[in-house]
Amino acid sequence: MKNQNKTQKTNLSPAKYLNAIKDPERRRDCKAIAKLMQTLSKKKPKMWGASIVGFDEYHYKYPSGREGDWMKIGFSNRKDSISLYLTCDLDALAPLLEKLGTYKRGVGCLYIKKLEDIHIGVLTRLIREALKQNPHQSSA
Questions:
Q1: 16: which residues sit within 8 A by CB, 6+ positions away?
Q2: 61 and which of 8, 46, 132, 138 could share a cystine (Cβ 3.0–4.6 Å)?
Protein backbone atom coordinates (compact mmCIF):
# COMPACT_ATOMS: atom_id res chain seq x y z
CA MET A 1 0.00 0.00 0.00
CA LYS A 2 1.48 3.37 -0.94
CA ASN A 3 1.60 6.34 1.41
CA GLN A 4 0.91 4.32 4.54
CA ASN A 5 0.37 5.96 7.89
CA LYS A 6 3.44 6.01 10.09
CA THR A 7 1.27 4.83 12.98
CA GLN A 8 0.01 1.30 12.45
CA LYS A 9 -1.94 -1.13 14.61
CA THR A 10 0.42 -3.34 16.62
CA ASN A 11 0.27 -6.44 18.79
CA LEU A 12 1.49 -4.55 21.87
CA SER A 13 -0.58 -4.92 25.03
CA PRO A 14 -2.92 -2.03 25.93
CA ALA A 15 -3.00 -3.29 29.54
CA LYS A 16 0.82 -3.15 29.78
CA TYR A 17 0.81 0.34 28.30
CA LEU A 18 -1.79 1.54 30.82
CA ASN A 19 -0.13 -0.15 33.78
CA ALA A 20 3.21 1.45 32.88
CA ILE A 21 1.85 5.00 33.30
CA LYS A 22 3.86 6.29 36.26
CA ASP A 23 1.53 8.95 37.64
CA PRO A 24 -1.24 7.15 39.61
CA GLU A 25 -3.92 9.77 38.87
CA ARG A 26 -3.10 9.80 35.16
CA ARG A 27 -3.04 5.98 35.10
CA ARG A 28 -6.47 5.88 36.79
CA ASP A 29 -7.87 8.45 34.31
CA CYS A 30 -6.49 6.56 31.30
CA LYS A 31 -7.93 3.28 32.55
CA ALA A 32 -11.31 4.96 33.04
CA ILE A 33 -11.19 6.38 29.50
CA ALA A 34 -10.26 2.93 28.16
CA LYS A 35 -13.20 1.36 29.98
CA LEU A 36 -15.60 4.04 28.69
CA MET A 37 -14.39 3.71 25.11
CA GLN A 38 -14.55 -0.08 25.23
CA THR A 39 -18.08 0.01 26.64
CA LEU A 40 -19.32 2.48 24.02
CA SER A 41 -17.55 0.89 21.03
CA LYS A 42 -18.14 -2.71 22.14
CA LYS A 43 -14.58 -3.36 20.85
CA LYS A 44 -11.44 -4.48 22.65
CA PRO A 45 -8.59 -1.98 22.76
CA LYS A 46 -5.73 -2.26 20.27
CA MET A 47 -2.42 -0.43 20.37
CA TRP A 48 -1.66 1.87 17.46
CA GLY A 49 2.06 2.45 17.46
CA ALA A 50 3.66 2.35 20.90
CA SER A 51 1.44 4.87 22.67
CA ILE A 52 -2.11 5.11 21.29
CA VAL A 53 -4.94 2.94 22.61
CA GLY A 54 -7.59 2.68 19.89
CA PHE A 55 -11.04 1.18 19.57
CA ASP A 56 -12.87 0.05 16.45
CA GLU A 57 -11.47 0.95 13.07
CA TYR A 58 -12.36 1.92 9.55
CA HIS A 59 -10.74 1.98 6.14
CA TYR A 60 -10.25 5.27 4.32
CA LYS A 61 -9.19 6.17 0.81
CA TYR A 62 -8.45 9.69 -0.37
CA PRO A 63 -8.75 10.85 -3.98
CA SER A 64 -4.94 11.18 -3.97
CA GLY A 65 -4.69 7.39 -3.65
CA ARG A 66 -3.60 7.44 -0.03
CA GLU A 67 -5.49 4.83 1.95
CA GLY A 68 -5.25 2.94 5.15
CA ASP A 69 -6.90 1.81 8.33
CA TRP A 70 -7.39 3.96 11.39
CA MET A 71 -9.14 3.81 14.74
CA LYS A 72 -12.53 5.43 15.17
CA ILE A 73 -11.73 6.54 18.72
CA GLY A 74 -8.67 6.37 20.93
CA PHE A 75 -6.43 8.14 23.38
CA SER A 76 -2.82 8.49 24.41
CA ASN A 77 -1.09 9.50 27.59
CA ARG A 78 1.23 12.36 26.66
CA LYS A 79 3.65 14.35 28.78
CA ASP A 80 1.35 17.32 29.40
CA SER A 81 -2.10 15.86 28.78
CA ILE A 82 -4.23 12.98 27.64
CA SER A 83 -4.93 13.18 23.92
CA LEU A 84 -8.40 12.01 22.91
CA TYR A 85 -8.68 11.02 19.26
CA LEU A 86 -12.20 11.32 17.90
CA THR A 87 -12.64 10.84 14.17
CA CYS A 88 -15.61 13.14 13.80
CA ASP A 89 -16.32 16.71 12.76
CA LEU A 90 -15.54 18.53 16.00
CA ASP A 91 -16.63 21.86 14.47
CA ALA A 92 -20.14 20.46 14.01
CA LEU A 93 -20.12 19.45 17.67
CA ALA A 94 -19.24 22.93 18.97
CA PRO A 95 -22.39 23.19 21.14
CA LEU A 96 -21.38 19.97 22.92
CA LEU A 97 -17.75 21.07 23.26
CA GLU A 98 -18.93 24.23 25.05
CA LYS A 99 -20.28 21.98 27.82
CA LEU A 100 -17.24 19.67 28.03
CA GLY A 101 -15.19 21.59 30.57
CA THR A 102 -11.49 22.45 30.47
CA TYR A 103 -9.67 21.16 27.38
CA LYS A 104 -7.55 22.25 24.44
CA ARG A 105 -8.26 21.27 20.90
CA GLY A 106 -6.40 20.08 17.83
CA VAL A 107 -7.86 19.26 14.41
CA GLY A 108 -9.25 15.85 15.32
CA CYS A 109 -8.34 15.57 18.95
CA LEU A 110 -8.96 17.00 22.36
CA TYR A 111 -6.34 17.44 25.06
CA ILE A 112 -7.34 17.14 28.71
CA LYS A 113 -5.22 17.36 31.85
CA LYS A 114 -7.43 15.10 33.96
CA LEU A 115 -10.89 13.58 33.90
CA GLU A 116 -12.15 15.73 36.76
CA ASP A 117 -11.71 18.78 34.48
CA ILE A 118 -14.38 17.58 32.07
CA HIS A 119 -18.00 16.49 32.12
CA ILE A 120 -18.07 12.70 31.56
CA GLY A 121 -21.64 12.77 30.19
CA VAL A 122 -20.57 15.21 27.48
CA LEU A 123 -17.47 13.14 26.70
CA THR A 124 -19.72 10.09 26.38
CA ARG A 125 -21.90 11.93 23.84
CA LEU A 126 -18.82 13.05 21.87
CA ILE A 127 -17.50 9.48 21.75
CA ARG A 128 -20.89 8.21 20.55
CA GLU A 129 -20.86 10.81 17.78
CA ALA A 130 -17.34 9.81 16.77
CA LEU A 131 -18.40 6.17 16.56
CA LYS A 132 -21.29 7.15 14.24
CA GLN A 133 -19.32 9.51 11.97
CA ASN A 134 -16.37 8.81 9.73
CA PRO A 135 -15.30 11.82 7.70
CA HIS A 136 -12.74 9.83 5.69
CA GLN A 137 -14.58 6.54 5.30
CA SER A 138 -14.73 5.19 1.81
CA SER A 139 -18.07 4.14 0.42
CA ALA A 140 -16.58 0.93 -0.95
A1: none
A2: 138
